[in-house]
Amino acid sequence: MNSTSYIELSREAYQNNLDFLRSYIKKGTRISSVVKGNAYGHGIDDFVPMAESMGIDHFSVNSADEALEVLKARTNPKTEIMIMGFIANEDLSWAIENEISFFVFEFDRVRTAIEIARSTGKKARIHIELETGMNRTGFDQEEITRLIPLIKENRDKLEIEGLCTHYAGAESIANYLRVEEQKRDFKQMAELLAEHDIIPKMKHTCCSAASIRLPDMHEDMVRIGILQYGFWPSREIFIEYLKGKKDKTEPLRRLISWKSSVMSVKKVEMGEFVGYGTTYLAQRDMKIAIVPIGYSHGFSRSLSNTGRVLINGFRVPVVGMVNMNNMAIDVSELEQVKKGDEVTLIGKSGDVEISVASFGELSDQLNYELLTRLPTKIPRIIN
Ligand SMILES: *Cc1c(COP(=O)(O)O)cnc(C)c1O
């Protein structure tokens, strides 16, 4: 059955981004590909095997259910999976059984993991997350002093896979001091653990923004989400990267395109309203095209009367309210528009391009949100 839209992923663009990341990131530092939120909307099922074919052998997800998706999608049984956030205690034995590593940031999870390891004889692979200022998850200084004896007593049940933290706002230079303090605290706590002979296989602290801004913190692994998909974590980080570079060309390429097609074309007379309610009044005789995409497909209602899409190489406005399953676009200026014409919601058409953020002159932070809202059920195609 045909879908009302489909998402295309470009292999070439991904290879380009990986080449860039590998040249930028310290030699010997491993890249963990962050694929939470259905691979930032790109689709875990298709994205994971493509990334594996380009040498990625480590994936990070937020929760156990996402880990299961990666486990099913991976083509190489040696590909590693790491859970950074939620795992219900009932699912911990599944994770341990499948050699999936996970962050620990509170005592209950550590104790439960030790219990499971004791009863199954299979070591739990843990990443000790340190609280350094994000104030989300992680052991603080006081808790670490209590964690040390617990780990020492259970060495045979735990694989200390990692020692990690997450920076609070590395995408903004205004947070410079806070991030510096986090770096200092991470190093101090890592030293304290080392004094007690708790030495992780890998240290990892950097997300995309921190990987660009803090090259001295690349350590053994970086956790790269948004950059690998060809988006900058913020405008500031992009400027920071370009500063002092002779070559000012954009090193990244977007993987994703999102395409639909015209369902019908109609004329609207001057003085008529378009769509539900009275938000759009035709100021002249118009021609509009109906596109079978609405907010149920991830095209936000807030883009009503403000969004833009591409058709036949032109950028045209959304008129009226975005409905659950449809929206109208103004094609009055275009001579030949007909049923079946391709409509680009994200990506290129002819010489024009629509990035996710320019959905509606929105801020870059919204890239994350708009991408992850793309429904799983839209078919993904790799080309
Ligand atoms: C989401 C996340 C990342 C990746 O963030 P990007 O900005 O997309 O690179 C890294 N680490 C943790 C703990 C995360 O939650």
From TrEMBL:
The keyword Isomerase applies. Belongs to the alanine racemase family. It comes from the Bacteria. Signal peptide: none annotated. HAMAP family: Ala_racemase. Transmembrane segments: none annotated. Its cofactor is pyridoxal 5'-phosphate. Pathway: Amino-acid biosynthesis; D-alanine biosynthesis; D-alanine from L-alanine: step 1/1. NCBIfam families: alr (TIGR00492). It catalyses: L-alanine = D-alanine. SMART domains: Ala_racemase_C. One of its GO terms (biological process) is D-alanine biosynthetic process. This is Alanine racemase. PANTHER family: ALANINE RACEMASE, ALANINE RACEMASE, CATABOLIC-RELATED. It comes from Ekhidna lutea. Substrate binds at R136, M324. The active site is at K36, Y276. Residues 255-383 form the Alanine racemase C-terminal domain. GO terms for cellular component: cytosol. Its EC number is 5.1.1.1.
